[in-house]
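Title: Prediction job returns without error message
Component: structure pipeline
Severity: low
Priority: P3
Assignee: unassigned

Description:
Job completed but the reporter wants confirmation the result is attached to the right record. Sequence as submitted:
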Amino acid sequence: MTGLAARGPAALTFVRFRRHRLALASLALLAALAVLAAAAPLVEAALGVEFGRVDLLGRLAPPSWAHPLGTDELGRDVLVRLLYGGRVSLFAGLTAAAVAAVIGTAVGLAAGYRGGWLDAVLMRVTDGVISLPLLPLLIVLVALDLEKLGLPRWLIDSEDVSLYRIIAIVALVGWTTVARLVRGTALALRERPFVEAARAQGAGPARIMLVHILPNLISPVIVATSLAAGNVILLESVLSFLGLGIQPPLPSWGNLLTNAQELIWSAPSLAFYPGALIFVTVIAFNFLGDGLQDAMDPRSGARS
């Protein structure tokens, strides 16, 4: 342990993370899902199918060499559509969580370091967003007419517009947890000796926040982002299941589950596969977040 301590906190963090077996397994699972989703075109080419090609003569076919997980109600390959749906769902979850983390970090850092009236205003805005009922708010925001918002026509007519809309909406309402975490940490850090020394040397507020305080906030931000990614995937799936999320022909695990609800008795596997992937992915992100929190918390070294 002495050698690890000499190598710095990164080595200690890695050692603590390795002890969290569920977090390691979750990281391996998420990496495997990401690789498979990225390889969707290769799998599609290997099987000789197209994820959007309709074949009514081959609808609801059982698993075979040509279709390892069978076909859906329109004769489309289930495995390929699950992989393409994974690309969309994982991209939406990670991107929305990352954007929300950036917004929350900026708000929390400004509120925690500057304090005073700015802190009061930003935290009241944060409390107001937190107090809003999330799912009804998302449903209302998703139902907004994009033409009346003045967005360009090329974006409105894009097949990916529903994906961009979900990412933007979830990011705009999902930054509050990170903001509160960052504010609390910034309040404690701004009174530390190294910040006082930087201030005495003439460093301005912007430099102190970006160079001296922000690097010490990375750990809680990473943990909160990993936990938020799973929640975003779940929210996207809920909205897609309600018909308000990712819209066909763009597949996602949520709208695949929506399409399968009418066939739950005749073809239950069509609902099982996307539902199981959503469940496993969300649980994996939660375990990964727990492992990162234990690894990045310096007090965990004393406990172990």
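Comment from assignee: result matches the submitted record. The CA atoms of residues 111 and 122 lie 6 Å apart.
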